[in-house]
């Protein structure tokens, strides 16, 4: 499962905050896990933030929604998108 899919599953109610945190924690600890080429720093940052909500922010629907927008923006090289048109464009671009 990739980071964006995990965030989406949380938003859909198919993954609890505790399971999302544990999933990120397990991946973060694995040396054998390879991140998407060109996005290594982004993935590592998101996994760290998800695995340590006590250091960053509690995993809530608002926080996770903001993280998804940030992830899409980083993938497209832009800034966090706010308009519906920009969000639709990002979904088409990344196949989400």
Polypeptide structure, described:
- This protein is mainly α and 96 residues long.
- It has one domain (3-94).
- 64% of the residues lie in helices and 0% in strands.
- It has helices spanning 3-11, 17-29, 40-51, 61-76, 84-94.
- Helix 1 (3-11) runs antiparallel to helix 4, helix 2 (17-29) packs across helix 3 and helix 4 packs across helix 5.
- The longest helix has 16 residues, at 61-76.
- It is globular.
- Residues 79-87 have low confidence and may be disordered.
What labels would you give this structure?
single chain; 96 residues; mainly alpha; 0% strand; globular
Write the layout of secondary structure elements.
Blueprint: H1 3-11, H2 17-29, H3 40-51, H4 61-76, H5 84-94
Helix pairs in contact: 1-4, 2-3, 4-5
Rg computed from alpha carbons, rounded to a whole number of angstroms: 13 Å
Secondary structure: number of strands: 0
Q: Provide the helix percentage.
A: 55-70%
Please trace the helix and strand order, writing H or E for each element: HHHHH
Number of helices: 5
Gist of the model:
64% of the residues lie in helices and 0% in strands. The chain is an all-alpha fold and 96 residues long.
């Amino acid at each position: 499962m990739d980071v964006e899919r995990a965030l989406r599953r949380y938003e859909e109610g198919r993954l609890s905050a505790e399971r999302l945190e544990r999933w990120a924690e397990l991946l973060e600890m694995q040396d054998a896990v390879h991140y998407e080429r060109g996005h290594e720093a982004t993935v590592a940052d998101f996994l760290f933030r998800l695995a340590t909500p006590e250091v960053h922010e509690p995993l809530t629907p608002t926080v996770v929604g903001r993280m998804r927008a940030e992830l899409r923006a980083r993938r497209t090289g832009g800034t966090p998108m706010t308009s519906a048109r920009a969000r639709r464009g990002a979904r088409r671009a990344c196949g989400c």
